[in-house]
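ok so I'm stuck.
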Amino acid sequence: MLAPLTTQIVGSYAKPEWLVNRDKSFNLDGSAWRIAPPHLDAARRDAALLAIYEQERAGLDLLTDGEALRPAYDRYFYSRLKGVDADTLGIRKTNNEEAVSPPRRDRAEQLERVRSEVPRIVGPVEWPGPLSVDELIFAKRHTKKPVKVTVIGPLTSYAKMIDDYYHDEEKAISALADALNAELRALDSAGADLLQIDEPSLTSSFSRCRRFGAAAIERVTAGLRAPVAIHVCYGYAYFHETKTPNESYADVLQLIASCARVDAISIEYEQPGHQPDLLRHCGAKHVILGLLNLGTEAVETPEHIARRLDAAARVVPPDRLHPASDCGMWHLAREAAFGKISSLVKGTEIFRQKHRI
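replied:
not stuck anymore, here's the structure
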């Protein structure tokens, strides 16, 4: 499993403005990319190299490719599964339960469109073959540090589509879990050092997840050998400048803690202003703790990071505690993103020295 105090980001790193139009990031037609198709693959790999380099330069212990090859993280996966139509979008009624935090006024309309104009399940959901294995191989080729890879979870995938085929929540979620499990197995075989499954809908649609969550997690993690983390959050800071703590969050952590195959829980902690008592609900799992507020480009001081770690370590032993960002760094300016991850490393070092770890 992870070494004590393994510093990392959740997944995405700042995407260069020359690469992506952020206002179109969630479009399914490829219009988010600013680079013409003949040069796009090379440009995305250049951005991935830049993300890897900056994580190394800051001193992070566990790296990602910054998700630079993906226009929008979640749709990148579920829109490409067999049985999913991402061309003729459906109109989905948004669920009030999803409104865990107020949207930014200047992006509320964009968020509503992302939530309501969604792909449709139109046939049996199946894995089409490797979707992100090339990304992992590329990242591992360009760093000697451990690499983690992130995949959308089946519950969140289901919550972001219209089911025009199964007409049954449990059957659709099970099919998605099997398809995504095949992707995770391929990543496992390709040498992922940590497999992270992102499930924000555990918070935003907890009534559904209470019914199907544990079974879906068990199904999507079946047969995996690499360590597995489940990430649960409140949505992108790009859309939510402030985040309101959800009363279900503790229940979500308990649900994940009950899943035997899960090794770690990745928590959005800083922007919602959570306190250490929340961590008691994580049981004996490792905790990947978000200590960087991505709702602001202000850089946290190393001393702030160290204080937050001190408080958290009263509940979670340091050998199971791992400093991280909150989720979704893709929209930040690179200078801010690099400043934040550098402070994360420096603050962790202050904590290490204080506790002689």
